[in-house]
Amino acid sequence: xxxxxxxxxxxxxxACMVVSRGLGQSTPQPTQNIVSAPTxxxxxxxxxxxxAEDSDAAIDPASxxxxxxxxxxxxxxxxxxxxxxxxxxxxxxxxxxFGGGKIKIFFDPRTHIYLGTDKASTSDLHxxxxxxxxxxxxxxxxxxxxxxxxxxxxxxxxxxVVTSYRSDRGELVMRDILSPRALKVRLTTQTxxxxxxxAVGAAELVSGTxxxxxxxxxxxxxxxxxxxxxxxxxxxxxxxAGRVTSIDLRLGLIVLTSSTDxxxxxxxxxxxxxxxxxxxxxxxxxxxxxxxxGSQYMARSITVKPSGQQ
Length: 310
Fold this sequence. Notes:
By secondary structure, the chain is mostly beta strands. It has 3 domains: 73 residues, CATH 2.40.50.320; 76 residues, CATH 2.40.50.320; 68 residues, CATH 2.40.50.320. It contains 1 helix and 19 strands. The strands form 3 sheets. Strands 3-2-1-6-7-4-5 form a 7-stranded mixed sheet, with no helix packed on it. The longest helix is centred in the N-terminal third of the chain and has 25 residues. The N and C termini lie far apart (131 Å).
């Protein structure tokens, strides 16, 4: 009887130990007061709908491109000529340079394009356009920093320098301002020749005279002059006032937009003979005294007006 009671007591003690060990293993560790957020059904505002493939939402491809690097801080060289070839895929133009020669120039969105004094775009560039280009070297490439288109003029109007005039043939040979090729013009008894506000004879069409020609209908495939205006004769003096659009001190060339007629003029100067104001830079307002030497305007003095003065 005592043995049975002892066995029963031992079995109960052993069972208690097993239960206590099992409870110790399954008891959870204490936590840091975690509070469960109450669940709620999503409202229409919280619901994010996927964008359908045929959605009208459009993404600008340009916004996915990285920003272009800044241009190298180099002085620009000025080039004037006509666009001989335009490649919009490779972003390059081939320019027939005034005085002869060709040069390939590259451009990209960093290039500023102007039509006269107004901003323009690459869509305004066309083969045969007369342009001035501020160029810099971007690595080994000639890059266009600025491209300036000359104001469009009538197809029946040209300006250039007289190369020769043959009265026996009634033929005037002239060189257009920005083209190295000679242009032959036929004069008739109906051709009007003026110098300023007075009528003059063909004897004033000497070599080196700067003229503007208005054309009439062609005859026998040749251009016929309807009116010839004598603008300048070799040795005559002119004063220009306006804004400097480009300048190349190395070549001695200023491109000026006249405040009188809003036309663009090329004015040359000899850097070794003419002292230049340190304030002379693009966008400066200047007054330039020039002499026409039979092929170009040569500056005799350049005066920079104070900032803010027109």
